Each structure stands twice: as C-alpha cells, then as structure tokens.
Predict the structure.
Amino acid sequence: MRTAVYPGSFDPCTNGHLDVIKRASRLFDRVVVAVLVNSSKQPAFSVEERVNMLNAVTDDMKNVEVRAFNGLLADFMKNINSSIIIKGIRAVSDFEYEFQMALTNRTLNSELETLFLHTSQDYMFLSSSIVKEIAKYGGCLDGLVPDGLIPVIKSRFERSDK
Ligand code: PNS
C-alpha cells in the first residue's frame, strides 16, 4: 500500500490545500495530512482546531487521514512508514524554499522523495496568510476556503478589527 504524506501548517486549510489533498488521494492508496504542531510562526488556530477543520473537509475521502506532528518531518515519515512527501507549488517563487526543504529532508533520510503537485490555476494566488488577512478585515471568503469552514474562520477574527 502506497502512503503519501502532505505536511503543512494549514492555518487555516484553504481550497488550494483541499485541491492538493483531493488530487493526492486519487494518486495514492492512503494520504496522511500532517499538521505541524510547533511552527515558528504563532498560529491563529490551535493544532486541534486545524486538525478538526481538515477532518471536516476530508470526511468524504476515505483514504485520507489527518495527524498532528511535532519535530522533524523526516522522523514523522519514519514513524508512519512512508517515504513520499507531497507538496503543492503555486509559482516559481515557492520553488526555491520547497527545493531547500526537499533536499534537507533527503539529507536527513535518503529514502525520502518529495513530489510537487502544481496548484490548480484558480488557487495560484491563494495562501493561508491571504485568507487571514481578508478575514481580519471582514472580507468575503467565498471560494477561498471550504464553505463549511467560513463561520469558524470568520469568528476567530471577528473582534480583531473592532
Ligand atoms: O504550510 P507550511 O508552513 O509551508 O509547512 C511547512 C512544513 C510544516 C512542511 C515544514 O515547516 C516542516 O516540515 N516542518 C517540520 C520541521 C522539519 O522537518 N524541518 C526540516 C525540513 S526543512
């Protein structure tokens, strides 16, 4: 059984992330979405909230599971016995950093392969940071994040612009 891991902060999950998860779920027997617990960035959503949001939007994909992880991705990969890391690439500007991470992970474990899925055209500009910026100023999140997540994302930022 081929298991691939899609790691990230998912703070919060966007339609761009969901698109990558859906496409990966068609390519692999099992996809583990790995949510980083301790990011150097201060997340807007706790790891439990991020995991819950991802579980809600991947409920219909039976070969997708969501896990939190702490520490090195290379160690997590070993723990769940997978060697395939999935990353989404939006633009050339993403590439340098992603290439650095892929080579770092390969240095830590020579069996790791990072596969890049290009973004769908509709989500080229989309990021969790953009979503948070729009939410902060009360803007419309339609089409940017899964519909079911809009209330919870909006409510997190409701007070900060008042
Ligand atoms: O969604 P993000 O913030 O771009 O995801 C980055 C993530 C979580 C994939 C990356 O920061 C990561 O793998 N962190 C775990 C720590 C680690 O393994 N670092 C060494 C590889 S650069």
Remarks:
- DSSP finds six helices and five strands in the chain.
- The longest strand covers residues 30-36.
